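Handoff note, outgoing to incoming analyst
You'll be picking up this chain. Sequence as last confirmed:
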Amino acid sequence: MNNKQQTKNMPVKKGDVVVVITGQDKGKKGRILKAFPKNNKIIVEKVHFTKRHSKPTQQNQKGGIIEKEAPIDVSNVALFNERIGEVTRAVYKISGDTRVRVCKKTGDELS
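Most recent structure output, in case you need it:
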């Protein structure tokens, strides 16, 4: 990514529930654990596991194979509204002098 290139505002943020819409984990639902806006990637719990081999150390006496979540592109997920049980989009509305994220389908305020 160029230094001159601007990053877009991501449509999802940490703590949101999302559904994977493409890839090997298509259809899986999970909460966002971490977001990387510069790379346009997110880590979703229980989605896109990778295996890491670790040697035995003082802290980890056994070593072995560790499975952990890997980042996926934000374009491969859709925001999930738990209240209506459907995929939706977030839009921003201005209430007073603050900007609030709102569900596009129902108008509910998103946290």
